Amino acid sequence: MAGFMKSLSYDRQWKNALHDLIQSSAGQSHMEMLKSSYSHLKKHDQKQGFLYYALFTKAFMIPRDDLIAYLIDEGVIAKQESREAEFHRGHGLLDRLEDACLLESIDGGSAVKMHHLIRHMAVKIYQERRSVMIKAGAKLKNLSGAGEWEESLVTASLIENQIKKIPSRHSPRCPSLSTLLLPYNRELELIDDTFFNQLHGLKILDLSHTIIVKLPDSVSNLVGLTILLLIDCKNVFY
């Protein structure tokens, strides 16, 4: 069966097969069959774009432009001659994932979401290939519930939790961490000044949609930080 699925191209037959698989709610036993859809993606940026969605919560609905902006910031979408050209390339990438039935178009085509079974597969593949911590939508109230912050950690997603404060006792030693996503922790108001002291490799920090009032002083020591997202942070002052 797996060999048959892998032989399918992106045509109506493949779409119907994947649709039937999702509707069957077969779960873990069919994970290898779902992985074949991923293996059919021919370009590296398509595979990386698909895996990036794993960092979001289950059934997370995200505007296409927002997802593309993330992919540009992460370097998944190669630098082009203009921002407009980068977004054009991003829309083509998402179109390809939709054609493969790996993303679902919603809100009249302005946003996308991913079926929970497909996202589960994406999480598994991501964790196999990269040192990543994915705790999106885990209802965490503090960072201690996120588990071990290993020194080899490269990406950490804590999107959409219930974290209110990050106290001084928490200063993870993760020199390789390059991406830290904390958006949609809507009650997050305080990050202690010491938190970023040992995160020297951080390049992307997302604190969007929080009620944070002040950026920790230690942010100024992040010499490699290239992207700081504070979308809808109405209370923050610098």
UniProtKB/TrEMBL annotation:
GO terms for biological process: defense response to other organism. It comes from the Eukaryota. Keywords: Plant defense. InterPro entries: Disease_R_plants, Leu-rich_rpt, LRR_dom_sf, WH-like_DNA-bd_sf. It holds the Pfam family LRR_8. This is NB-ARC domain-containing protein. The lineage of its organism: Eukaryota, Viridiplantae, Streptophyta, Embryophyta, Tracheophyta.
